[in-house]
Amino acid sequence: MTEDIETILSEECELVKDRPIIVGVSGGPDSLCLMETLRQAGYSVLVAHFDHQLRPESVDEARVVAQMAARFNLQFESAAADVRAHAGQAKLSLEEAARDMRYQFLFRLAREHHAQAVAVGHTADDQVETILMHFMRGSALNGLKGMPYRSILKTFDPHIPIVRPLLDLWRADTIAYCAAHDLQPHYDSSNASTDYQRNHIRHLLIPSLEGYNPKFRAAVLRMSHSLKDDHVLLMELLENAWRETVLEVGADSVAFDASLLSHCSPGLQRNLVKHAMQTLLPAVDVSHAALARAAALIREPAHQPARVDLKGGMVLFREADRIYVSQLDAQFPSHLAPQMTAAPLIPLPIPGQVELAGGWVLTCEPWSGTSASAGAQAGDNSDPYQAWLDADNLTEPLHLRARRPGDQFTPFGMDGHSQKLSDFFVNAKMPQRAREKYPLLCAGNEIIWVPGYRPAQSHCLTESTQTVLYLTLRAVSS
Predict the structure, then answer these.
(1) pLDDT tens digits for range 313-329
(2) Rounded to two decimals, what is the model's pTM?
(3) Which of 104, 81, 92, 236 is nearest to 162 (CA)?
(4) Confidence of residue 478 (pLDDT cuts 50, 70, 90)
(5) Which of 236, 319, 433, 454 has its CA 20 to 30 A from that of 5?
(6) What is the pLDDT of residues 381-433, one digit of tens each?
(7) Is 332 or 296 the better-scoring residue by pLDDT?
(8) What are the beta bridge partners of residue 317?
(9) Distance between CA atoms of residues 131 and 107, nearest Å
(10) Residue 186, exposed/middle/buried by CB under 10 A (0-12, 13-18, 19+)?
(11) Stretch (H or E) spanning 4
(12) Terminal-residue alpha carbon distance, the chain
């Protein structure tokens, strides 16, 4: 055991001996075995005990753990809280509430003491029970592989890991270890109650399954080891696909290349969406139903709504050549398309320039060449963010504004017919989130140019044009 545990501590848990470890010690055989194993191996241990206040004897148990720590000259910290009250307020089960408050305490200590990790005494028995709990919830591979030796619980801390060095030891092994090292564990009386799901699995379900296979627990543990290797392979595939398909990761959204994402396998699509959701909201519980909705939109966009709800206030939607996993209130990324600032109206001097959100700058100046040269440039123009306009009939000052209810636009190419601006946006396939604050160049009440799309018919160059305005809109790097 000593050789194996040393390897697990250094290689699997990635622990070093010159930084403290917060060790959660309840006083039972598993946690005492963990505490003494780390101490014997030469690690810096801080013993942490949390009193859930669920049983009258819990105060005495906290005192016994404190005495045990003092016996080995180990630093000791404790806390107590009313878990039952927290469960009621947060609408959690007692098991969930106890875990939540216990881990909040352990990770707070880890931050205060600049610890390298929080260590807990989960054993092979706990692993089997956890896998069965995940199985009954319909978990995917990530749940069925069980707990790893080392992981990050972002809900509690984004950087400090939790480590589980005893995952290959059975509970009987920890009891034997305590006996061999003169440690007197106490036994939590609530562990015998089948009112809790884990205890029900431990005392009723597993013994029943062992009637079909006496080595059932060993078989589940063996499956866990196999699925861990499979999960590593999946993560490698996921990381490669993430690098290839993700265009941008922001504080409130993840943008995928829609074409590349749609060509991924359905399983990879679901895992990419799940990873995006957990990137934005690490604690979110991602359901299979939410991922199925997302995959349907990715796979068959023409037959799906423009947006599907996921979980935790997140949505998935398609905009132009991108698919977003986003918080519901995420703003349109202004570096992708121009957006107005907070000002409702921005005058545009001639010559001059104005700055818009996201580093966009619109410049306006009289054309220095002939009107014929301007016409030739306009005829060959492939850049929708530049335009040559007939200025002969511009009698009102120019300004930029966002759209207003009832706006009409007469775009070039429609023989002078006007249409609702909202219809023009739809036909031009402008991203919906970009429309509300999209800048419109106006002369008085008339829209004369929708930058990036088209000028108005009435201000396009003709053979009789004498005065030409040249306009450009550019995203300027900050």
Answers:
(1) 899 998 878 899 998 87
(2) 0.70
(3) 104
(4) very low
(5) 236
(6) 889 999 999 988 887 889 999 999 999 999 988 877 889 999 999 888 888 88
(7) 296
(8) 307, 324
(9) 24
(10) middle
(11) helix 2-7
(12) 59
* Domains of the chain: residue spans and CATH: 2-210 (3.40.50.620), 232-327 (1.20.59.20), 345-475 (3.50.40.10)
Nearest to 183 by CA among 22, 46, 62, 71: 71
User: Residue 398 pairs with which residues in a beta bridge?
Assistant: 443
How many residues make up the chain in this entry? 478
Please enumerate in sequence order all residues whose Cβ is within 8 A of that of 422, keeping only pairs 6 or more positions apart, or say none.
403, 407, 435
Amino acid at 229: D
Q: Which residues contact 209 (CB under 8 A, 6 or more apart)?
A: 216
Q: How far apart are CA 129 and CA 124, in angstroms?
A: 9
In the predicted structure, residue 242 carries a pLDDT above the cut 50? yes
- Single out the residue of 164, 297, 305 nearest to residue 228, CA to CA: 164
Taking 80 as the threshold, does the pLDDT of residue 259 lie above it?
yes
- Determine the average pLDDT of the residues in 294-319: 82
DSSP-assigned beta bridge partners for residue 388: 470
pLDDT category at 476 given cuts 50, 70, 90 is confident
Closest CA to 151 of 210, 231, 57, 243: 231
Token digits for 288? 């299979």
- Tell me what percent of the chain is helix, strand and coil, each rounded to the nearest 5: 40, 20, 35
Q: Which amino acid is at 397?
A: P
